[in-house]
Design goal:
The protein has 972 residues and is mainly α. The chain is 61% helix and 4% strand. The strands form three sheets. The protein has a five-stranded parallel sheet with strand order 2-3-4-1-5, sandwiched between helices. The chain has a two-stranded antiparallel ribbon with strand order 6-7. Helix 17 crosses helix 18, helix 20 packs antiparallel against helix 21 and helix 28 runs antiparallel to helix 29. The protein is elongated. The two termini are 81 Å apart. 50% of the residues are buried.
């Protein structure tokens, strides 16, 4: 199947058929006419045709296409096919050419003695010519040699002699050869002389053009249609041809290979699209093309595959231990064959296949030599490191290796290639002869490992911890290690690290170390306060930043503002607290806006998000967390993602989305093993327990409380406060009221002792009030509820306190308190707590005899519960106690959650009046109640609802989205 070869076929055909005319001319008009013919006249005797071109360009196919019908023209064809392995066999081609000349009398004396300067004995040359002359006496003789570049010099000498003597024969003798690249080989002089013959035809085959590939596709499509294998229609042909040409450079062999691989995939029922992935046949034939470029072709190609490019020719030549001329020849041949495009491999899979063709015992030294040459040439550290990392078990011992690997790691981190950076640091540690340098590299590596493989992080810290205990870890590294040790629950080791740093402090102390100690104090105060108590005397009084120092200049500024928010829960008055919160959250948002997520910043970023969460700025907290979750996902950082998912789960709980919280917390716990979480497991585990409890899935919550392992030291950290509050809520919901009271009491005691009595962390007073109420102690319940209300917390916590206070008060006092709670939950957009408050309010109205109002509230709560998929609606304590609602089961909520409920896109076409009616109907109001609230008739309400149903394509009231304009619905 030849395309774009019509001109060459016509010329070669005319040239071959000219042999008959040459024979007639020799016997008729004599040789004089032939001598006066043009050099490329096919009727001249002793003529030659040379077909050249890149590897696999179709030279052999063209030759066969023209020579097959030659027998019908009366031409005697003598043919031979050569190969690189036969080039050193004397007279191998001659013997193959004469193998079928049975009419000759006996074998030729090919191996007679030759003179000192003779390549072939004279008698052998004359005997070979005589044999050909005898054949030519009976008709034209055409000699065809395929891949003449591999022919042995002796045979080439015989052919050159025979052609030179052709005019003396009584017949016609012609030679046609194909000649491909033979990069790196020293062509024999006789071959150059043969190919330089003036009298001959020169044909050069090039790669197919894109139009040629398209023509080939059309031919194959026609054949496939006849066999039932057609895959694409004519409309795809141009696009497919362009893709094929791009992948192969127009090499016909490679084009056919990709198409054949595509057919195999289709027959194997694999999906086939418009792409051409490298299959087995394509890669095999690509390697064949590489081999056929010449004796040095594969070796040079392997060097290019290793370096990635052939741009640095001198370096490449040194790498493969050859000369630049040979490298240039191979690169040119590989480019002509469609293997290379410019200086690089055209297809990545071919580069991989060429590189994998190197044996292991050859690859390692080649990589090592490549690293050394690149380093000498001043290449980028990452380029050098990529070869050092491929050294296998052998550890390089050159002095420059650790420095290059360390520099490569920092460059890789800048482009978020963390795994590569970790590998560089690990090898640098192995190569470094200096113990202190190895510890420094280990510390850097451990920091990055937590991002990509948190489960292995603790193991990586062990050598550093051992050095710490031995007293060989530098002071600065000891202080940097404190946070890592505390996360793993190694509080005693962290204490040793701080004491070691204090003992090693120079006098006078350096400003940098002083700042590090101050940062450690803030970290302990915000998360690990028990250790702060143990070391308070050693660390000295808390220091404040210098007035000339901007808070944003400190690496631990985020932890400072977090500690600021936590500590303002106990000290100042309401106004001072609000002002301090405003200042802290403003700094936190400024940091978040100007900081990228990296190994150095992720602790500060987490602290800023917690600052927003604990100060009850949920809208801002959710916005930033969702953005950062997207960024962490782009970085493929499971450690970062898991921690932020845990925080986002707590935000979802405070937004009244327990099912979303459940999914986020579960995903966070799946991202990391319990070992990788360390004491931080308290964050996702507490969120999951709270969510399960809120959803009424008490068995699952109990399994988490009873069976999930947690570090003992977790309860000595801020994470333990979340866990105590969540466990207390679960025990309260399952009737273990005394145990719940104990958990809430312990949580509150620790929060006060640790100076982090903040409702945004855990509203333990509300928990105490609920547990006291469940135990029948109304006075104590009212005391804690009022104490919580006096603290002026956010709307959600105030609403929760009002709901519990209402349950502790006489029935006549409850409606006012519950209505205030409903209003607060509506402002906050917490439909979960709203449903609980409406349930209590409906029950109270029914108890007071206002059945209509009670049913309206209960209907509204039921509507929200229906949409949220509630498993339970109310929990009734023992007789004589008020009814307390329990958390409703929620359905999945969209992520991220908006700050305030807004109309959905479906509601956009509605008028303001229609939207108000639809929102009230969605929240359980009857048509009469809607009319009374909006001062319109029932008929008008019905008309509005009919239009709403039509506009948003629903047929019943239950399909109205409950999320529509919650503020409008409850303030209309």
């Amino acid at each position: 199947m030849l395309v774009e070869r019509d001109e060459q076929i016509a010329k070669l055909t005319a040239w071959v058929t000219g042999a008959a005319r040459a024979h007639s001319a020799a016997h008729g008009a004599g040789y004089g006419t032939a001598r006066r013919a043009a050099p490329d006249d096919p009727s001249r005797p002793g003529r030659i045709a040379v077909i050249s071109g890149p590897v696999a360009s179709g030279k052999t196919a063209l030759l066969h296409r023209v020579l097959e019908p030659s027998a019908e023209s009366g031409i005697r064809l003598l043919s031979a096919v050569t190969s690189p392995s036969e080039r050193h066999i004397p007279f191998g081609v001659v013997e193959e050419l004469l193998r079928d000349t049975r009419e000759a009398a006996g074998p030729l004396a090919l191996h007679g003695p030759a003179g000192a300067e003779e390549l072939v004995p004279a008698q052998t040359l004359m005997a070979f010519h005589a044999r050909l002359a005898g054949l030519a006496a009976h008709g034209p003789v055409l000699i065809a040699v395929d891949d003449v570049q591999y022919a042995d010099p002796q045979s080439l000498q015989c052919l050159l002699y025979a052609l030179g003597r052709a005019r003396a024969t009584a017949g016609s003798l012609a030679l046609v050869v194909t000649c491909g690249p033979d990069a790196g080989a020293n062509a024999p002089h006789v071959l150059e002389e043969l190919l330089r013959q003036v009298e001959g035809l020169r044909l050069r085959l090039g790669p197919l053009t894109a139009h040629g590939v398209e023509a080939l596709l059309v031919q194959r499509a026609g054949r496939a249609a006849r066999t039932g294998d057609a895959a694409t229609g004519p409309s795809h042909t141009t696009r497919l041809a362009s893709s094929l040409h791009m992948a192969t450079g127009g090499n016909p062999l490679l084009v056919h290979s990709l198409l054949d691989d595509r057919v195999h995939r289709r027959r194997a029922t694999e999906p086939v699209d418009g792409s051409f992935p490298a299959g087995e046949q394509f890669l095999q034939n690509a390697l064949i093309c590489v081999h056929r470029t010449g004796a040095e072709g594969l070796r040079v190609a392997q060097g290019i595959a290793l370096l990635g490019s052939a741009a640095a020719r001198p370096l490449l030549a040194r790498l493969v231990e050859t000369d630049e001329r040979t490298v240039g020849q191979v690169v040119a041949a590989l480019g002509d064959a469609g293997i290379l495009q410019g200086e690089r491999f055209r297809h990545g899979a071919v580069r991989t296949a060429v590189r994998e063709s190197l044996a292991d015992d050859a690859l390692v030294p080649l990589r090592r030599r490549a690293a050394g040459l690149l380093y000498e040439a001043g290449a980028a550290p990452m380029a050098v490191a990529s070869h050092l990392l491929g050294n296998g078990p052998a550890v390089p011992d050159e002095e420059w290796v650790p420095g290059v690997l360390s520099a490569a790691a920092h460059t890789a981190l800048a482009s978020q290639r963390v795994e590569f950076a970790v590998r560089c640091l690990r090898l640098a540690e192995e190569c470094s002869p200096d113990e202190r340098e190895r510890l420094r590299l280990r510390a850097s590596m451990a920091k990055f490992i937590w991002r990509v493989n948190p489960s292995a992080w603790a193991q990586e810290l062990q050598p550093l911890n051992a050095a710490l205990r031995e007293g060989t870890l530098p002071v600065t590294d000891s202080l940097r290690l404190v946070g890592d040790l505390l996360w793993n629950g190694w509080i005693d080791d962290a204490s040793i690290a701080i004491e070691h740093a204090l003992d090693g402090m120079p006098h006078p102390s350096e400003p940098g170390l002083t700042r590090q100690l101050r940062d450690v104090r803030v970290m302990l105060a915000s998360t690990y306060p028990t250790l702060l108590d143990r070391l308070d005397r050693a660390l000295g009084p808390a220091a404040t930043p210098s007035p000339t120092e901007s808070p944003e200049d400190c690496a631990m500024t985020g932890i400072r503002v977090l500690q600021g928010v936590l500590s303002t829960g106990t000290g100042p008055g309401h106004r001072e607290r609000a002002a301090a919160d405003e200042e802290h959250t403003e700094i936190a948002e400024r940091i978040l806006a100007g900081t990228r997520l990296t190994e150095d910043s992720h602790v500060t970023i987490r602290a800023c998000l917690l600052t927003l969460l604990y100060s009850e700025r949920l809208g801002e907290a959710i916005l930033w967390t969702d953005r950062l979750l997207d960024e962490a996902s782009e970085h493929d950082a499971p450690g970062w993602t898991a921690v932020m998912q845990a925080m986002r789960a707590h935000m979802a709980l405070r937004r009244g989305e327990p099912d979303l919280a459940r999914r986020l917390a579960a995903q966070a716990m799946e991202q990391l093993t319990p070992h990788g979480w360390g004491v931080g497991i308290g964050m996702p585990l507490s969120a999951l327990i709270e969510a399960r409890t809120a959803l009424g899935d008490h068995e699952a919550a109990a399994a988490l409380v009873d069976n999930h392992p947690v570090p003992e030291q977790m309860l000595l950290t801020r994470y333990g406060l979340h866990y105590l509050y969540a466990r207390g809520g679960h025990r309260l919901a399952t009737g273990r009221h005394h145990a719940a009271l104990t958990d809430f009491m312990a949580c509150g005691r620790l929060m006060r002792e640790w100076d982090m009595d903040r409702e945004g962390l855990a509203p333990w007073r509300v928990g105490m009030a609920e547990a006291s109420l469940a135990l029948g102690n109304r006075d104590q319940a009212e005391q804690f509820a009022r104490e919580q209300l006096a603290r002026e917390a956010g709307p959600r916590v105030r609403g929760m306190a009002l709901r519990v206070l209402a349950a502790a008060r006489p029935a006549a006092d409850r409606p006012v308190l519950l209505e205030r709670a409903v209003t607060l939950f509506q402002e906050e957009g917490d439909s979960h707590e709203l449903a609980r408050a409406l349930t209590d309010l409906g029950t109270v109205y029914e108890q007071l005899g206002d059945t209509a109002q009670g049913r309206s509230c209960t209907r509204r709560a039921g509507r929200i519960a229906e949409v949220r998929g509630a498993r339970e609606v109310t929990h009734r304590p023992r007789t004589g106690q008020p009814v307390l609602s329990v958390p409703q089961r929620a359905v999945p909520a969209p992520m991220p959650s908006p700050v305030r409920s807004r109309p959905s896109a479906a509601a956009a076409p509605l008028t303001d009046a229609e939207r108000r009616v639809a929102a009230l109907a969605a929240h359980g109001y009857t048509n009469r109640e809607i009319g009374a609230k909006l001062f319109i008739t029932v008929s008008t309400v019905e008309q509005h609802l009919t239009r709403v149903y039509r506009k948003i394509n629903i047929t019943r009231r239950q399909d109205l989205p409950v999320s529509w304009d919650i503020d409008v619905a409850h303030t209309a």
